[in-house]
Structure formats: structure tokens, C-alpha cells
Amino acid sequence: MPGLIRRNDIDEVRARINIVDIVGDYVTLKGAGVGSLKGLCPFHDERSPSFHVRPQVGRYHCFGCGEDGDVFSFLQKMDHTTFTEAVERMAARIGYELHYEDGGQANADHGNRARLLAANQAAAEFFVAQLTAPEAEPGRKFLGERGFDASAAERFGIGFAPKSYDALSKHLKTLGFTDAELLAAGLTGEGDRGFYDRFRGRLVWPIRDVTGQTLGFGARKLLDDDQGPKYLNTPETPIYHKSQVLYGLDLAKRDISRGRQVVVVEGYTDVMACHLAGITTAVATCGTAFGVDHIKMIRRVLGDVANDDSRGLGEVVFTFDPDEAGQKAASRAFSEEQRFAAQTFVAVAPDGLDPCDLRLNRGDDAVRRLIRAKKPMFEFMVRRVLASHNLDTVEGRVAALRAAAPVVAGIRDQALNVGYVRNLAGWLGMEPREVAQAVAAARGTAQRAQPTRDGGRMESGQQGQTEPERVQHGPSLVQLPTDPATRLERDAVMVMLQQPAAVGRALVERASQVTFSNPSLAVVKDGIAASMDDFDSPHWLDRVIDEVPGPFSTLVKELGVAPIPEKDNRELAIYCQGVTTDLIGKHLLHQKSEMLGNLQRTDAAAEPARYREIQKELVSIEAERRALRTEQ
Asked: 3-class DSSP state for residue 608?
């Protein structure tokens, strides 16, 4: 069928791509044993990492929600691509030329993600080129007045959209893009006169995903006769969803991961000011309020993991304008605060200046001091509540306590909760016991108000934090017994699935013939035995998955990515061969014990031939055991 990519090419691309490089663009991964990495799952919300990636076998598996696959399925699920698009994208990444069945060509579907991304990238390049044109003087002036020079504009990919009905679309059509594609990408609109450029006479910022691909644009009004909004963003498209993008994340992600800090600001110029001042972890939302999807993105990049059920080690710093809009933004952020395991802070600049104005008026160091002077989110919110009451009167203090108690009651961390009870008592000039009673009452009210999944009530702070229900249709790794025999069988199967070359074909073949005590692992072992024809193939794990009965496929996938329990600095091959020979040795020892029993029950005088046969088998078993010990 024309258009289908040849299987050999798909296999070659999969083999050449390191899945860690691709997944690492979306998830911060940390070591989890020999040859295994883990991070927060991008497919469901979790507080502790259960998402494992095993580069040796090119697969990922989440032990929380069950999502599993290879680099192509990951891209399909994360970026909503087709399988063909995912393969073509990875082939382009490594410069590999694909071949198609019957001489067919690449997918020519003009509505696909790759075409929309290409159109946006071409538009971004067009806008950048236009920034140097005479017509773009208002844009250059706008940047200069805010302390941004040409190098800053280049660093952030800023461009200019000409004040023209169709300058962009005409240019993109010369590159082969159609009206339908440009409309689907949000680059044009359609009116009575036909298609028109969406962005005209504006300064333009490219909005990129975490991998650096341009998904859309944010455009700032410059001209007095522009009747549009101050900021105009790309509308919702198949590739651009404003609630799922953060401006600057592509530039900030590595420093966020390394420094365990993210700074959330309110605008594109604020992001620029922070980065240029050395706060290279700054990001901003794009035309929408900070929400749950943004939190999920930040947590994955931050590696936001709870530490012993307490607050995580990372920091999330919010900057808000002191005006009414900024206060509303603060309230919204606070309402979602407990979705983070990291500690949350608020930084408010003096005199109501945002980071861009602060840098312009007082320099880079003032921006850095702003972030250093951050206050904990809970303190900020409590003081904000108190500021709206007259604390000089008894009535005002009582009202302030009633208003602030629910804020303190919502603090999950018990040590923080106790500390804020003391602080609130001090700020109000009240007895700590009185404040503690008010907080306890507020907590009880909150608990009664929150429904649980079973129709009862939910503890304060738990809403939205529950892990997904796992529906198991077969055995799972976490369900295996922990007795020594099962652990040995499990570990041997794991190395045979994950590191077949390190174990070696001969040992795998011998191990796949031994008797297992655990029935579930025995099924996996039989799948290995049935797959030996593909032992040297990159499809080794997939072949085993296909061989086992359907309900056992999840177990194979989990065994194929779970961390190998190797703690020492020994070479991996030594461990893999050692645990496999231990399994074979255990089997041989069991056989020897059975043969000795048979020998004792056999009358040498009455059954001399059988007696000699058992002796020969014992000699053979013992020789194999000695050979195994020598190999180790």
C-alpha cells in the first residue's frame, strides 16, 4: 500500500533513537537502578514517580496508570500524532531517509500535525525577518523602551507581523502551504473577502512547546488604529491549546530541572526580563489563567516529588501584580497550591512594578532580589486576609481569625500547620489555643464539605490528589510474592528481558527450560522460550509480549522496564549472568535432590539398569553445576 513506511526502516529508526532523549523533553528523569530511569508520569497526576523508562529495551511503563509503549507510542499520546507522523519526525531528527512501500511517498495529509508545525515555523522565520524592516520601527521602539536590544529579540525569537492583509499568507503559499493549512494553524482567519492574516502590525512572540517546536504566537498591539485587544494569541488549533503551554518553558526547562525552581510570571516581557537578569527558570501562561494543566507540566519538568509525605524539595515562585487582577491571580494559584509537592512562594515587587518594569527602572539585580525576597504562599495569603480587616478592634480581630482560619486549616504539612497557628496568633495578638481551636473547626467544616469517591467525605487537601484506579486484568509485578524463590525468578526474568545480550543466548536458553515455582513468572519464562528465534532482534521484548497470553502482557511490560535490583558497582553483565546462573543452579539443585531420592528408592539388585541410569543423571547434573560455578 503506497505511503506505508517499510518495516525495516521503522525498526532502524526505533533502534537509533534513544527513548530517554525524547521522553526527557517532557519529563525530568532520574536514575532508578542500573539502566533504568523514572519520573512523574505525563499521562496521569501523581505525587510519587511511578513512570519508568528503560533505554536498553526502548520502552516506558507507568506502574501507576499502566501506560506502556515505545518512543513512537509516546509521541502519539503526548503530541496527538499518527504513528506515521511519529516515525517521520524521529527519522528527520536523526537524518534517516525513510522508504515507503511500492514507492509511495510520505503522508500528504495537509491537516496533520507535521504540516501545521512546519507552517508555524515558517511563519516564525518570516516574522523574525520582518523585524528589521522599516515598517517594524514601532516594534523595535517598543522593545528598546523596555530594555530589550536586538540580541534579546533574537534570543527569544521575537518578530514583527507587517500591517498587511495577506503578506504572511502570500509568503507561506510560495512555500507550498495551502489556505486550509494556514487556517488550521491559526495563522489566518476567514472573512467576507476571503482569507486574511490573523496578526497584522504587531510585535510577535513565538509560543513553543517543551521541545522547542513553535505551536502558535502571541502578538502585542503597537499602532493606535489597531482596534484589537492589547494581546492577541493564536486560537485553539489541533496543535495549540493555551491551557497546555507555558511561554519560555523550552528555554527554562533544563535550569528548572537542575535548580529545582520555577518562577511563574504574568507576561512575555516579564519572562524575558527574568531570563536576561539571570532568573532563567521563568515561564508565563499564554492568554489564560494559571491552571491544573500548567501545574502538571511544571511538576513533570521540576521533578516535583513528595518527600516522605511532606513537602517536596523544589520551589515554585509566583509573581503577581498588586492590582485587582493580580490579586485574583494569586487567589487562583493558591486554590491549586496543594497540587504541588514543592514549596510555593509569592514574590511581589516594590511599588507595584512587574519584573519587566523592575529591571528597566532598577536593573538586573533588583529582579534577582525580588525572587530572593519571596515569601511562602501561605504567609502571603494569610497576611492578605488580615490586611482586609481592622486589627485594632476586637471585632476586627475576631473577623480576621474567622477569615484566616480556613487558610491555615488547608495546610497539609502538620509541622507547617502548627507553625502557622503560632504565627497567626502573633499577628492577631491572640492566644495560640484560641487560634488552634478556630483552625480545627475550619478543618472540620472543610472535611464535611468534601465528598470522597465512595460517597463519604474527603480529608482537607486531598481533592484532586487521588491516584487513578488501576484495573488489572492479569498478574502484575507488584502482586508477586516476596519469598526468596519468587524474587530470584523475577530478577532472572527481568535481566533476560532487559539485558539479553549481557546474559547471553546460551544462558537464556538454559534458564528458559528450568521449572519455576511462581505460575505467573512461569508463563513469562515460557514466552521467552518461545521467542528465542528473535533473541538478537530489537523486537525481543515485543516478541515475548506477543507470545504470552493477553492477561500476562502487562506483567511482561512491567518486568521489561522495572529497575534491576543491582546496588553494587559491579559490571552489569556480571550481575545479569550471575542471577541467571543462580536460577539455573537452584533448578539443578532441585533436580539433584529428586535424583538422590529416586536413587534411595531404587533397589540396585532388582533394577540394576535403572539404578545405573539414575547415577548417570546425577553425575551429569553435578557436572553441569560445577560448570556453572566455573563460569561465574
From this structure: helix
